[in-house]
Amino acid sequence: MSSRRRFYARPLFAAAASIVVLTGAASTAPAATPPIDGAASPAAALDDTYYQAALGKTGTALKSSLHTIISDQTKLSYSQVWDALKATDADPANSSNVILLYTGRSQSKSENGGDVGDWNREHVWAKSHGDFGTATGPGTDIHHLRPEDVQVNSIRGNKDFDNGGSAVSGAPGNYTDGDSFEPRDAVKGDVARMILYMAVRYEGDDAFADLEPNDSVNNGSAPKIGRLSVLKQWSQEDPPDSFEQNRNEVIFDQFQHNRNPFIDHPEWVEAIW
Ligand SMILES: [Ca+2]
Ligand SMILES: [Ca+2]
Ligand SMILES: [Ca+2]
């Protein structure tokens, strides 16, 4: 921690830079801000490039600017999603496995499918909310698609997100009742940031519905997901970690070439909502 901190301190930067100049070792001078944990792209570099048009904005202006930025993307087919998830959700401790979102289980990449005990493709923004299906578009956008146990995926179904309910069998730390699902603490923020990414990415200006969060449950097939107040709380309580940041990076580098802004700038959740 202390050695990391040192590199962020501007006065030391300046001192280091002058020493470099004095000794004539020159031009390689002050390095950019070091990468955020687990991510390859320096946050400052992203601000100077990818997010440049959004900086300094707030509210609807920020949302609109981010929509333009993240809509420039490569789109996958639903069958391509399988291989993509094997890369984005790979277990850092075992490259043969993926980590399942709700259960947290590390499972062989090859055990994907529809049988009991397999993992399949969970749409965190439930695809019936806006009825976008699995056509290329929101239904194949891997920013919100995650590996999940077939049965747990079925238990979550198309429920909105909220706190409370009974323990979910086979998925420790997850709870559900008749109208909502509460994921385990370690992925609460991930879920919130995925939902809010979808809200910004899909604004109704393509062939799909304008997706938006609201503060309800029982949204049914409306293009809404709740509850926004709970998602905002989850985003604060569970800030981005290296797994989530790496995932964003892999999607950006290798697959869709767009980013989830709320992983890079979690403070933009409050700036917009
Ligand atoms: Ca409920
Ligand atoms: Ca997390
Ligand atoms: Ca929207």
TrEMBL record:
Database matches in InterPro entries: Endonuclease-I, His-Me_finger_sf, TAT_signal
Region (Disordered): 158-182
Entry keyword set: Endonuclease, Hydrolase, Nuclease, Signal
A single MF term (Gene Ontology): endonuclease activity
Signal peptide: 1-31
Name of the molecule in the record: Endonuclease I family protein
Species of origin: Streptomyces mutomycini
